[in-house]
Design goal:
Helices cover 42% and strands 22% of the residues. It has a single domain, classed as HUPs (Rossmann fold). It is an alpha/beta fold. Strands 1, 2, 3, 4, 5 and 6 form a six-stranded mixed β-sheet that branches.
Length: 178
């Protein structure tokens, strides 16, 4: 039986080949954005091809607001969390071994939360979108994905915003075997 590259199975049009690398533990960062939804689809395909566990992490960011205490960075956080919960249930119902963890942190901390979670979970890869919900802290400190590239204990698969998540796994698998 021919060995097919994971990149071909996912439909990537790159010559990068993972060789003998297998991703059995995947950390997926979701924030409710369109880009994280694309990352979700790639994680779904990767998990299905490798029979992997997906640890979904959603981070609530809070900023210190003086005497008012901690305030959510995003006004629509409840809606975003509901979206992420639906996405996690959909991933599970598609047959993927997945678990959702929601973590709270101060503004600017999501990259460290994802990296720490990957370290604790023994993740083989972290999958994220390249642009998420932009915050003032994100503008000042840089994107979560960019920071994650510097603090991650494992490879980071960053799905660019221009990449289509509609890639057919069956078509890509057929092309890989040909």
């Amino acid at each position: 039986m021919p060995v097919q590259s994971t990149t071909a199975m996912l439909g990537w049009s790159t010559s990068f080949h993972l060789g003998g690398i297998v991703f059995k533990r995947i950390v997926l960062g979701l924030d409710g954005s369109d880009e994280s939804t694309k990352a979700l689809e790639y994680a779904r395909k990767l998990a299905a091809s490798e029979d992997a566990h997906v640890e979904i992490v959603h981070v609530h960011e809070y900023m210190i607001a003086g005497r008012a205490g901690m305030q959510p960075v995003r006004a629509d956080e409840d809606e975003l969390e509901a979206t992420v919960r639906r996405q996690a249930e959909d991933l599970k119902s598609s047959g993927v071994d997945a678990h959702l963890t929601i973590v709270s942190t101060s503004a600017g901390g999501p990259a460290h939360v994802l990296a720490d979670h990957a370290r604790t979970d023994g993740a083989d890869v972290i999958v994220v979108g390249t642009r998420g919900r932009t915050t003032l802290a994100g503008l000042l400190l840089g994107s979560v994905t960019q920071r994650l590239m510097h603090v991650s204990p494992c490879p980071v698969l960053a799905i660019p915003s221009g990449v289509s998540s509609d890639t057919s796994t069956e078509a890509a698998t057929s092309a890989a075997v040909s």
